[in-house]
Amino acid sequence: MIRVELHHTFPDFTLDVRFTTAADVTVLFGPSGVGKSLTVRAIAGLFTPHRGYIQVEEEVWLDTARTLHIPPQKRRVGYVPQHYGLFPHLTVGENVAFGLRHMAPGERQQRVQEMLTLMRLEGLADRRPGELSGGQQQRVALARALVTQPRLLLLDEALGALDPVLREELRETVRTIQHRYRIPLFLITHDVEEAALLGDYWIVFEEGRVVQTGEPGEIFRHPATPHIARAVGMRNIYTGVVRAHPAAGITEIQWGATVLQVERGDLPVGRDVIFGFRPEDVLFVREDRPLAHAHNILCVRVDEVRLVGTDCVILLRTCEGGERIHVRLFPTVCEDLRIRPGQRRRILIRRRAIHVFDTAGHPKGMG
Amino acid sequence: MIRVELHHTFPDFTLDVRFTTAADVTVLFGPSGVGKSLTVRAIAGLFTPHRGYIQVEEEVWLDTARTLHIPPQKRRVGYVPQHYGLFPHLTVGENVAFGLRHMAPGERQQRVQEMLTLMRLEGLADRRPGELSGGQQQRVALARALVTQPRLLLLDEALGALDPVLREELRETVRTIQHRYRIPLFLITHDVEEAALLGDYWIVFEEGRVVQTGEPGEIFRHPATPHIARAVGMRNIYTGVVRAHPAAGITEIQWGATVLQVERGDLPVGRDVIFGFRPEDVLFVREDRPLAHAHNILCVRVDEVRLVGTDCVILLRTCEGGERIHVRLFPTVCEDLRIRPGQRRRILIRRRAIHVFDTAGHPKGMG
Amino acid sequence: MMWSPLWLSLRVALFATLLGLATGLPIAYILARKDSPWVDTLGALTNLPLVLPPTVLGYYLLVAFGYNSPLGRFLDRLGIPLVFTWRGAVLAAWMVSMPLIIQSAGAAFAAVDRELEDVARTLGESEWGVFWRVTFPLARPGILAGTLMAFARALGDFGTTLMVAGNIPGRTQTMAIAIYDAVQMGDQQRANALVLVLTLTALAILLLLRRLTHHLPGGPT
Amino acid sequence: MMWSPLWLSLRVALFATLLGLATGLPIAYILARKDSPWVDTLGALTNLPLVLPPTVLGYYLLVAFGYNSPLGRFLDRLGIPLVFTWRGAVLAAWMVSMPLIIQSAGAAFAAVDRELEDVARTLGESEWGVFWRVTFPLARPGILAGTLMAFARALGDFGTTLMVAGNIPGRTQTMAIAIYDAVQMGDQQRANALVLVLTLTALAILLLLRRLTHHLPGGPT
Amino acid sequence: RATSPQEEPLHVAAATSLAPTMPDLLNAFEEETGHRAVPILSSSGKLAQQITNGAPYDIFMSADTQYVDHLIATGYAQPNDRTLYALGVLVLAVHAPDSPVRGLPDLLQPDVRRVAMANPHLAPYGRAAREALEHTGLWEPLQGKLVLAETVRQATQFVETGNADAGLIALSTAQDARVQVIPIPPSLYTPIRHEAVILRRTPSRAAARAFLTFLQSPRAQRIFQEHGFRIPPPTREEDGREP
Ligand SMILES: Nc1ncnc2c1ncn2[C@@H]1O[C@H](COP(=O)(O)OP(=O)(O)OP(=O)(O)O)[C@@H](O)[C@H]1O
Ligand SMILES: Nc1ncnc2c1ncn2[C@@H]1O[C@H](COP(=O)(O)OP(=O)(O)OP(=O)(O)O)[C@@H](O)[C@H]1O
Ligand SMILES: [Mg+2]
Ligand SMILES: [Mg+2]
Q: Among residues 1-40 of chain E, which lie with CB inside 8 Å of chain D?
């Protein structure tokens, strides 16, 4: 169980963070410049906020109220900073062995060798960081942090500069080590897929504050803000007005000329709402099949069909109003459905796929 | 049209690269330490290989045979290195204005302001790079390179440390600027999605050499090596033996206890082959519907069902042989099919979804 | 009787330091950037003015630039004789202080991140511009340290200056020499007063220089 | 008659440089890391031994450490008198050369990436270990430059040494003093020979030091 | 006999042993003749080296005859332009008022640990001190105690600061130092002949001549005496000229 409370004011930035996590892998997620790195540095003991409290299991590491501050040396955290922080004057082997100086040379050598092998760095032990590629540097930094078997691992965008194959392998490695030694892991990443794959618990930052915490699945389904929604791939976000309650737990939203039903019962009629749905939650309705029901069926025109990597991305516009809708399909499905630009089609957006935000006001960065 | 030929030997690395591209956005793709950064530095004129030739449109920038070497100053490339290379002694505004010193102060000021706005850096003009977050630094580096309206833009992992929303916006910005001024763009990235989204043409590196070039769609469908295949998400890769040719253009491959048909006609019987298919090309066969045909239907056991961000990932094993198969579905489809661990199901892998590699030998990094 | 040597000292130290920067920085740059046995030897050679006792160095300078040497006669004919003029004091102070600039600036230049220079090149900056807009400001703390040392050393030089420029009141009598004179005359009070003035002036200037460059772009923030 | 002053000079310069490192590095570190007007003033103060004419500095040292001072008497009672011994020469050389170490090392310490020190801390390294395993090696080029300058200056010091250590042939006559003697006696041949020996020795040592540290981990590669 | 005030002053290069004497001497000279003069103080040897390299001095007041001989031999001065103006007085100086030292032989006492003198190779007073010690048979036994200073002034400072228990120094420097002075018989050393010479390059020959004449004047001689020099008897001066 890790509890973190930080408060610090810079001339033009205020950090005011408060969270608790007991997850194996905690992901700090959020835009640029919101205080993720500062938070991680505070946990490592490298940045002391004006006010703060940090507790890891039974140990209190920081309590400004009691002027308690355990120095970084005593915290035994593995820390990989944003630019890896390799020692340029030491070889790869020496970098990795840095934290093991109190170990017998033979054992140290063996531990370093094992770690280099695990990180696919065999043969590079005698190079200097300046002679390594970006990805190699990153793995050295990871190895150096892991080899000391820290109590807590803090990775500040430590898996970024890797090619997909290696990254996947390293993710597995990190997970394995993390499971084997049961080291709680804090991970800063901008890669949603990575955050979803590795993270058990997310802490979402915005402008120096924590705006949402929870399991990734929950955040994917119910993002607290439109901004988080966009970050986790909910590309279709719109404003509408609550129109009626046709049944218990069902709300009708007027969206331009269209009406959509959502599974909510707590929204007063007349209220402005922001709502959204994921591009993969849009279903094309076969013209040759009868409709099971009549609601949430929209007439759209196909603007563009793009093959983007492993996905087929389709841009639509509603026939009335011309609102833009993103749809994501597997390429094979795309081909099967024979979707072509210029077509007029019908789509279905299921009621429970539509998420209504509790925040009021204009959606930030609306698509 | 850009032509690049480089040959250089380090004590334990040899760069031997040759390619031509006329694409708007060329992506250099490949594992860590294979020479991508070196190639980009050579194009910028910052690294002179032992032998080489570089031509951009009509201009020859490097021709070691004629000892011709246009200095970087004359090449007018916009270069963003892996760690951004911001000038720590200059403010953000001064960094961006660095390449505009020959411009009238008023005009320079205006151009810088525009660029800062475009890059969402308003209000940071007077900060030093050391006071910026990683993502802010990156945008400053981009702004500095773009503001000079270079002939060629070289981005070495320049979009990495950004949060998804901003990254998407920046991608759009880069694309816009690139279209407006028609600046060819070279992009090093490890993000497949980004490479697919932005890249018109891929150059795939392995161990200092170019192993495949082409449009991303082509590389996704027909990766030249198992390694590339894994990098672009073709997670299911196996070895088999060519068994028979049941029809023209159809080949049967013996895969453990199973037989798979593929759309190839040129493989001699008895040949060892490596083949693969994408996790999203696996279809679950409804038990309640009759089979359209009998081939490529496999009996599998469900090992694990994971919700990974916007995907549902299913791990299967074949009933005979126990080969592991990855399947990717949309979460909604996953729910509709009611797939649960421990079930025994039938899957279909379409003939044309199976890719047979032309490389012989053992698949590197086989899953 | 006190201010004239002080002004002369300041003028001499200022000129010597500027001259030291003008000559020392290029040498330091070459030392930092070229890696060859020749350059290493050059680097060691630049330390020699430190190794020689000041009076001896002064003697050699006197012989080399004096009226008995072709060089000295040539300079005399041009109307800019060096020895026994304040220019001679500058020559002496320059020789003893330049090594400090070379060594400090050399170490600072060597530490500059080459990638930043590369980026500046791609932004169209000439090699000259790269030096002045990137290398120099990034090396500034080291250069500043060297400059401060050189200025202090130039202010305090006595042995070399005395030999090359003489001890001519109002013309070549610097503060250091005036102090020496006072001590020689047994006028301890005057010596102490002069020392106080010299050290306070030096302190003030060193602090001022440090403060000034602190707040320039490129200074530590 | 030539080798005894040379050995003495080398010994004095070596001790003075080591002493200079031992005292100068901590001061340089504080100067580089603490930002306050007091520390700035301290930084400027450390330049003062450069500003004072060596003989005058020597005079003050003579008074401070001489037999008439409590300190001098105390040292004498301990059996390690300073003035008129080779230890006095070390004291003198130390005073004139330490500022060079402080300034150079200070600039180098200031340039070390603090993030690397932070990483070392998280790896359990004590503040002491962080200094020796990270800060020091990264600042090494600047420290080396300072050390080389200090060694050269210590070798070449004459005015201060003569004042504090006197000129006792075979006991406190350093090379610099021997050269001075020869020049003053008009024995130009002997002076030239001594200068040649001193400069060649100095060159060899400076080059050797540079080479040695070049190939240590942390040197430029 | 008065000259215009904007005339260049005479540059008088004088040995450091004259340092305390020069202000009085040059003031008197100005009063007597109206010529201004400024002193340039350094060791005789350095001054001679500077003169042979073109130093713009008018008069050289050496503490010795040897450098004057050298300048005349090398053509920087003329034989007729030299004059003997004073004789240096070597004294034994001790720091402590209660010192047991009463004469040269007392230097052998174990309480006397260090004896300062000027470097005999460089300074005339150093040579004289050496001769005095040799004549009394103390040179060899004192070897371990001797500390050589660059100049006689520095030797005086060694005694004055108590770092040397005794010193063989010039009376002229001892006078205004806080030391006890014990005379040394002049017979123990060759007279220290302070000679002055006009430098050939001088643009102010007339004033320089006047200065040389002034040096022989009673007023000048009184000043020298006040500052611890002896006045050479006229006959002895003639003897000294012809070695
Ligand atoms: N020393 C400082 N002085 C002033 N502001 C600072 C300082 N250090 C950090 N900041 C500000 O604090 C904010 C948070 O910085 P931090 O590095 O934690 O961001 P981040 O969330 O890690 O962003 P990124 O994802 O871009 O790395 C930024 O806006 C930054 O400008
Ligand atoms: N100066 C050098 N000396 C020796 N080897 C070098 C040098 N510079 C680069 N290399 C080697 O060249 C290879 C290619 O390096 P490069 O930086 O181009 O890799 P990259 O493809 O950009 O990798 P990454 O994606 O990790 O950044 C690496 O194996 C590296 O070790
Ligand atoms: Mg960060
Ligand atoms: Mg790279």
A: none
